[in-house]
Design goal:
homodimer; 343 residues; alpha/beta; Rossmann fold; 2 domains; six-stranded parallel sheet; six-stranded mixed sheet; 12 strands; 44% helix; elongated; DNA-binding
DNA sequence: CTGAAAGCGCTTACAG
DNA sequence: CTGAAAGCGCTTACAG
């Protein structure tokens, strides 16, 4: 039935060890035997059994990818395919396969990760998110298992290899951009603060205000939850303030789309009456009306580099801890207006 | 170091076989021994080694998911996360894991699939696409390996278990819908005809015209390639015909967005001057201007059912071949206009 | 209800 | 440069 290394050995008149070494392209085997063995392998249509090889070699040549099946906007539709593409590109180049998490809740995901590492299903793990007080991350860190995160860790930042955008800096930059356009009243519609990315962007926003000598006002900050539950109301209250904002920073393009829609219902025009910028530059942001000014965060890169980092750690357990911020670019479209001299 | 079944056996005063049976929850083991063994397992923090179990049991408890890294619109961003979610939901419920393909070209994907089946990396495979004359599909069919497709197979339809939308019927329905609104001049902007989904939708369009006693006109059909290379031109020529269409059917929402954008540049208004319907109902289609009328194809369901079918086949090799069309719904928004009585 | 033994298909010191 | 042997950590007839 299935042809094994032993069949090949017999047919090629060598020992199984030799066949094994030919598969691994061991330099200590003569070219001649290699040729002969390879011929037989082809002729017999031999394929190495993955499980057997993994068991004997104590490695799996696969990496685990853990996705947050949460409601986090940042990890909704458009993000996922792109990180995966980045991960696949790097993994494929190094002949690694990908094992994807399937769990839907935090608990399920935690259990999966434990069984991946304890059960030796994978050689390393990529966490596709960074959340506050994450048990899974702590477990991974304590188990000394090779892993990488896409996102700045909430804790133990100096002990964990990760990749991210410099979310604090880019949020700061976005606010500065609005300053340049003459805006002083800038609201912020945040993401789920369970995720570090949301905290960081909010932090950058606050810092930018501070650096400009403006004070942060609570009524200019709409919390993720508030937005989700009573979206329209929160926007309504925001725009009915004595000093309504002239610009809004949204945590994500999807959020921005919804905001624009509600503003419309209130007959508030973007960018005539209020400007809007957001993050993540979804593929469709060029098509909405008005085309959205947004920060491109290089999602592919994020996945690609995270995998490179991980593979380094897998191949060299004492590789140093590394961080890298993937550069971003503000894509100016038509959702912001220069109000210098108008106001 | 790593605690094995033998350590557990010793500690629990039973044989390794018994421990193994406890893990499998074999009914022939007494509840008492089970309790004792389980206690020891917990105490020793024992976790079964995945690779060893797979090798001995000749099963992997994982399914391979093959994605088409092509340019096929149907498998672009918004589709992928949703099918995956459907697949994960079903797989997780049956305690199966997911192994994802990483290849970027047809050849790479083919090689991966071969190594997945020959190398026994997975117990079954889901093909997330259906393309014309696909070597990978033929290989899978000939190898008798359990697999399922999301998409109607180009050939051997009666021999392959698959799940799909009834793309011919829904395209037919969409055209009928436009008929009801009074349209008689209906253009079709197709997808990549390498994919069966594109062929089917085009087929449904043609059939609908025929059934209504209208004849199919080549100048009303814009081929995927033509559209991609000289998008604007092709739309321009279309609208400059003696009898320009009053309605356009687009193969996918992303295509529709682009069409709308070009029409705008030509100062042609949707739906005032021309109506537009498309397929796939991307999450963002409610946000574009005008909100897009589109067919929701139940992507989650597609992934979920495909996995159910596959798992059936994996667990029972002589399960019958099955097909199922997942129902769809036309989401009416604001991109179509009723022109009855106008002309 | 439980155990001893063989085996799943490889890899890798060790020896020559 | 190559082989014999042990071992990776399980499962599963077979026997009792």
């Amino acid at each position: 039935m299935t042809v094994t290394i032993i069949d090949v050995a017999r047919e090629a008149n060598v020992s199984p060890s030799t066949v094994s070494r030919v598969i691994a392209d061991n330099p200590r085997i003569s070219e001649q035997t290699k040729r002969k063995v390879r011929e037989v392998m082809e002729q017999l249509e031999y394929y190495p059994n993955f499980q057997a090889r993994n068991l004997a070699a104590k490695s799996t040549k696969t990496i685990g990818v853990i996705m947050s099946h949460s409601t986090s906007l940042a990890f909704q539709n458009p993000f996922f395919p792109e990180v995966i593409r980045g991960i696949c590109t790097s993994a494929h180049a190094s002949q690694y396969g990908i094992y994807l998490s399937t769990g839907a809740t935090e608990e399920e995901i935690y259990q999966e990760v434990v069984s991946m590492v304890q059960g030796r299903k994978v050689d390393g793990i990529i966490l596709l998110y960074s959340r506050v007080n994450d048990r899974t991350m702590t477990y991974l860190k304590d188990s000394k298992f090779p892993f990488t995160m896409v996102g700045r860790p909430y804790k133990y930042e100096s002990e964990i290899t990760y990749i991210d955008n410099d979310n604090r800096a880019i949020a700061h930059d976005v606010v500065d951009y609005l300053f340049q356009l003459g805006h002083r009243h800038i609201a912020f519609i945040g993401g789920n603060l369970e995720f570090v990315v949301s905290m960081d962007r909010l932090g950058g926003y606050k810092q930018a205000l501070k650096d400009a000598g403006l004070s942060y006002a609570d009524e200019y900050f709409i919390h993720d939850n508030a937005f989700k539950s009573k979206e329209k109301n929160s926007i309504y209250s925001l725009m009915k303030l004595d000093k309504p904002p002239t610009a809004i920073v949204a945590h994500d393009d999807l959020v921005a789309y919804e905001v624009i829609r509600y503003l419309e219902e209130l007959s508030i025009q973007v960018p005539q009456n209020v400007s809007i910028v957001s993050f993540n530059n979804h593929a469709l942001s060029a098509y909405v009306k008005p085309p959205l000014t947004s920060v491109d965060i290089s999602i592919f890169e994020l996945g690609f580099e995270a995998t490179n980092f991980l593979l380094e750690k897998v191949q060299d357990p004492k590789a140093t801890v590394k961080h890298h911020f993937v550069p971003t670019t503000l894509i100016e479209r038509e959702s912001c207006r220069n109000i210098n001299g108008f106001g």
